[in-house]
Amino acid sequence: MLPFNVIIDRYLNYLLIEKGLSSNTLEAYSKDLIRHIDFLKKNSISNISESDTAAILKYLIELRKEGLIPTSRARHLVSLRGFYKFLVQEKITNHDPTSVVDLPKTGLALPDVLSKDELKSLLDTPDTTTHKGLRDAAMIELLYAAGLRVTELVNMKLQDINTEACFVRVFGKGSKERVVPIGQFAKNRIDVYIKTARPALLKNVMSRYLFIARAGKPMTRQGFWKLLKRYTVIAEIKKHVSPHSLRHSFASHLLEGGADLRSVQLMLGHADISTTQIYTHVAHEHLKSIHKKYHPRG
User: Fold this and answer.
1) Catalytic residue among 149, 189, 248, 288
2) What string of pLDDT tens digits covers the 298 residues of the chain?
3) Does 244 qualify as catalytic in the annotation?
4) Angle CA 253–259–261, to nearest 5
5) What are the residues whose beta carbons fall under 8 Å from the beta carbon of 163, sequence distance 6 or more?
6) Among this protein's residues, is 270 annotated catalytic?
7) Which of 8, 21, 160, 204 is the right S-S partner for 25, CB 3.0 to 4.6 Å?
8) Catalytic residue among 270, 288, 295, 297
């Protein structure tokens, strides 16, 4: 892998020759990239291909802590998007960690991360005196507790969750498997759902899926989107909330609380992990302790 300074020089030459940018603009890009590379080094990332979405998120969090206003942080993200797109184009790396951090077309506001109070309000909104309310509460709690993608949530099988050990088994992109710890809040809600609400929703129909919709069929992505939007309105949250917002919030809250970057990468499934055999008992206990210590509802 090329040294960081060589990679930056190649990108700046590309901007100069191919894009014809001015010297002032190039200097601004250079400062942004050097700052980002310094961050990567500080977090023991010595290879640009090791940078992922969790690293980008933590970098933006650090910029905020340093006092940069939203538009300045967004400008940094724009710089990084161009940089990583170039790296993929030149086959220096095979992925763009900024690709899921979207900028709205209407401006340079960064994607919303829900505050802990907003998340508590959202998580407390479902009516847990009803079977559907218990299901919805368990789904939203698990999505946030484990930082899941919505597809991972709705595709989860009953056998994939172990509330006694407080872990869920997740099959992510490319069928990569990972094990993610969950906290007491999620454990309690899932236990109640499985023991009471799920059998009632199944109505004597058999299903492998953890979360059930009508006629014993698994919950769909679209179905979950609709119920999440409804609860967002009831909770009077003004931000644009999507299932991915809870995944971003999961990572953001862990990183803000002091969790180490590598552990968050493992829990998000961004590391190169293809099977749970990679995890040892020690690794399981380490992730569990990280989650319990730093997750707001651990």
Assistant:
1) 149
2) 788 889 999 999 988 888 787 888 888 889 999 999 999 999 999 889 889 888 888 888 888 888 888 778 888 888 898 999 999 999 999 888 887 775 544 344 445 678 889 999 999 999 999 999 999 999 999 999 999 999 999 999 999 999 999 999 998 776 778 889 999 999 999 999 999 999 999 988 999 999 999 888 899 999 999 999 999 999 999 888 888 889 888 888 887 777 777 777 788 886 433 222 222 223 345 556 766 776 777 6
3) yes
4) 100
5) 182, 187, 190, 191, 194
6) yes
7) 21
8) 270
The yes-or-no answer on residue 149 being catalytic is yes
Spatial distance between the Cα atoms of 279 and 169, rounded to a whole number of angstroms: 12
Distance CA(20)–CA(208), nearest Å, equals 57
295 given a catalytic annotation: no
pTM higher than 0.90, yes or no? no
Q: Which of 244, 262, 284, 292 is the catalytic position?
A: 244
CATH of 116-294 given 1.10.8.60, 1.10.443.10, 3.40.220.10, 3.40.640.10: 1.10.443.10
